[in-house]
Amino acid sequence: LPSIGSICSGGRYDNLASLYTTNQIPGVGAAVGLDRLIAAMEELNLFDKISTPADVLIINMDKNYRHKYLKLADTLRKEGIKIEFYIDEKKMDKQLKYADRKGFKLALINGSNEFESGNFKIKNLQTGENITVVESDLVSTLKNILAVL
């Protein structure tokens, strides 16, 4: 990638130490430009785009249900499912963009209607598919979906 420029350099630096001492000491050195190296690796798509250890993001649809979201996150974590709850109160599309950018596999989208009916909406962030499951099937459905992603 010529546009990135040199990512490492080195050489012989005779008498460099004379700046700090009266002795004549030969020297050699090398350096790596990490910012350039990372820029080149990003341009070559050598980094995974995933930047979260969690598989599922719980979307924050209704501030009045925060305690239910947190209880749901705790329950799913105890079942071995890696969960993050989007704590801020932002529009759903911003939360889904965050989920996409961070590399989440699934999103749980539950507002007051879903909590009242006992149904859970699961959005597959890789395919865009939405499914609705009853609460008793939530854990097994999430595990089954995550097993094939």
Question: Secondary structure elements and their pairing?
Answer:
Blueprint lengths: L7 E5 L15 E5 L1 H10 L12 E5 L5 H13 L4 E3 L6 H11 L3 E5 L1 H6 L1 E6 L5 E5 L3 H11 L1
Parallel strand pairs: 3-4, 3-5
Antiparallel strand pairs: 1-2, 5-6, 6-7
Question: How would you describe what is shown here?
Answer:
The chain is of the alpha/beta class. Helices cover 34% and strands 23% of the residues. It is built from 5 helices and 7 strands. The protein has a 5-stranded mixed beta sheet, with helices on both faces. The chain has a two-stranded antiparallel sheet with strand order 1-2. The longest helix has 13 residues. The mean pLDDT is 92.
Instruction: Report mean pLDDT, rounded to a whole number.
Output: 92
Strand content: 15-25%
Uncertain stretches of 5 or more adjacent residues: none
- Overall, the morphology is elongated
Radius of gyration, rounded?
25 Å
Largest sheet: 5 strands, mixed
Amino-to-carboxy terminus distance: 33 Å
H-E string: EEHEHEHEHEEH
In terms of quaternary structure, what is this? Answer: single chain
Contiguous helical run count: 5
| Share of helical residues | 25-40%
Output the strand order for the largest sheet.
Answer: 4-3-5-6-7
The structure class reads alpha/beta
- Strand runs, count: 7
Labels describing this entry:
single chain; 149 residues; alpha/beta; 5-stranded mixed beta sheet; two-stranded antiparallel sheet; 5 helices; 7 strands; 34% helix; 23% strand
Describe the structure concisely for a colleague.
By secondary structure, the protein is of the alpha/beta class. 34% of the residues lie in helices and 23% in strands.
